[in-house]
Amino acid sequence: MEKSFVFKFIGLDFDLTGIISSTLMALAVLFICIWLSRKVEMKPNKRQNVFEYLLDFTNGILKSNVSDPDAQNHLSLYAFVLFLFIWFMNQLGMFLEVKVDDWVFVKSPTADPVATMSFAMMTLLLSFTFGIQRFGVGGYLKNYTQPVGFMLPINLIEEFTNFLTLSLRLYGNIYAGEVLLTLIGNDLAHAGGPFTLILAAPLAMIWQGFSVFIGSIQAYVFVTLSMVYIGRKVTTE
């Protein structure tokens, strides 16, 4: 059974697997952004075109779901970095996993619910912040009683369910993909000698390709829903 390496510091548990994996992907995103944006010119080169396409792509998601211009300006960089960071995290476990015996040191961080819940919490905190800036504390809290006062408990429950669905959808898809890839590579490949080993190889490659697609879709869905939740906080119905 796979285990994550956890250590204690000042009374708190720290998941070394998640820290190492997340740091590697943060460095990868930083390197890609610096590499693509070097030598910015009026007539874009190929690398600059890729960078601008990615930025336009995330800005398109943002503008489709957040109508407030001020919020768009503040969220543009967040949507861009969030998409790239989650995309790289989703793909990591498909191509690289570092294990020592049963201890895992590198895998997809988004295959851990703590990581996806952290992303969801950032989005919800941003939505609260922009909502309060837009309407003030009193006006923001009043929105929980809209359209009628007895909707208050339902609206509060909705905040909690938004947090769970946003985080667990991403976690479930990435975790399931890694589990199936492990089953193909370990259990199926060694189940019946050379025949199953030959059968497992193309299946693993096909599933890796499919997992890249799923990881990309999940990054898109997460950013889209994040912008939807924030957009709802800065607009009146």
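That was protein one. Protein two is written in the same sequence-then-structure order:
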Amino acid sequence: MRIPAHSVCTAIRDDIVAGVYERGSRLTEELLARRYGVSRVPVREALRTLEAEGFVVTRRHAGACVAEPTEQEAADLLEMRTLLEPLGASRAAQRRTEAHLKVLRGLVRLGQERARRGNSDDLRSLGGWFHETLAQASGSPALSSMLTQLRHKIAWMYAVESPADPVESWTEHGAIVDAVARGDGERARAITTLHTERSLPAHRLRFGSGQDRAERVRNSQHAVNMPSLRH
């Protein structure tokens, strides 16, 4: 069975984001193919995609390597997100479907419930799903794809602290959905801008030492043809 290149790409990207591969480290096709249990063909295709996304660079005499973003490049990503997420919310107010609203409202209910209980791990996942769904509701595949890449890169470059007041944070999520449901693009944009800007101080650059990287490598030996990577 031929493993799709996008599955290999997801696996490599996830390991880059998790810090399994050091910035600047080489990514050889042979070792990657062995690690993920695939041939070199999907690995080669995956590396091309990851290079286009900015996670990988090709260097003379070294081949594919993990990119080494600068602090300025990392800061630019946060600025881009503060511009694009409000745009996505504004468009979602005009283009969302009832299915999108149902999912968004369900996520807000769960988020508010978990926030009251103080389940920070659940809140991180729910927040990611919320913003992913909001981007999809924009009706713009290009914008949605760009926001997804931004989220991956920000997760790679930054550690994000939990909100000081998670209940207030999820109240803002609910206000965004209310504006989207009413078709009020300007209010959806304004609330999303405020929500995004308030989250900026919680971001801390990951650049620095990585004493536990070797341990993460040992603990993440998964193959692409495992069930978790089939969807």
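Strands lie at 56-59, 63-66, 158-160, 203-205. Keep this in mind for the problem set.
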